[in-house]
Amino acid sequence: MKTLKATLALAPLSIALVSSTADGQGIYWQDNFDSFGSPSTITAAGTANGYDILFNASAGPSDFGAVFGYDYSAAGIPSAPNSGGSTRGLQLYVNKDATVANTAVNLYPTGLSVSGDFKLRFDLWMNYPSSGNTTEHALFGINHSGTFANRAANAAGSDGLFFAMSGEGGSSGTSTTARDYSVFRGQGAGLAPLLLRTNNFTFGPDSGIGNSFDNADPLAGSTFPSGSHPYGFSGVPGMRWVQGEVRQETVDGSPLVTWMLNGVIFAQYTNSTAYTAGDIMIGYNDIFTSVSPADTYVVFDNIVVSTIPEPTTAVLAGMGAVAMIGYIRRRRN
User: Fold this and answer.
1) CA distance 324 to 25
2) What is d(CA 263, CA 241) in angstroms, rounded to the nearest whole number?
3) Which residues pair with 286 in a beta bridge?
4) What is the DSSP string of 109-157?
5) How far apart are CA 160 and CA 274, in angstroms?
6) What per-residue confidence (pLDDT) applies to 160?
7) Is a pLDDT exceeding 70 seen at residue 312?
8) Which of 174, 94, 177 is nearest to 138 (CA)?
């Protein structure tokens, strides 16, 4: 196994708002990658372009690419929902060399530390060929130290609260490593992340069809219908822009973590871990031992860490109440 990691160049920033949005939400940190006049490609772990970049693989050398200022219009990808016509973002890819392995790259904004009630938002596009069968996962999380390269089934250690989703729905609905929609919590040095499957979620256990966190789940199908997918795949977020959000907020005294895609709650739980503050993470993970096709990658754009104007009490319905019926499909900004 080879683990490469960057050394933090700055002490954690104290929480301070750097700007605000039109609706009054204070912004702690943001990046839209529009400042790059030409792409900046990073292929080695270290600190670059305002990020600490970490890589981890179960075998083999460093094998990833992080392309800052990537012009995704060249691949036929339209402007992201929050880009206002711009087509520059961050492209991530892994597993392109001859050594096949469970591989992941993580990016942490250098020196960022956030606590209390806040949310991470981003636009995301997962690209892959029409044949599918890639089963790579976009990663994103909160409350990280920035010293672990988090991935599914990582014996080298993990931290924070993070999530993963595959672009084309190739993971098993019974997998204990990673599903199409996965929820992880770090376990510290030497332990693999734990896939949370039954602890007070609004998605998966309520479906009644035995496909928890799978693209076959009705919630995934209604959020990402086959009719709007270029290859006709159902229940998958790939090959289209998705607006993702992870919230941490105190609701009626409980520390609630909520994961949403296009405003729909996909997972929600009370955070009883020690991971309550820290950096945010974005990344990419290939859990299978196969060489990744050249056109398989993820693009992140318009990443924002901001305040939550008021407690979103509407999400209380997702806290595991026995009387809950159906799924929560709306959010309050």
Assistant:
1) 30
2) 13
3) 103, 136
4) ETT--B-SSEEEEEEEEEE--TT----EEEEEEEEE-S-----TT-TT-
5) 9
6) 96
7) no
8) 94
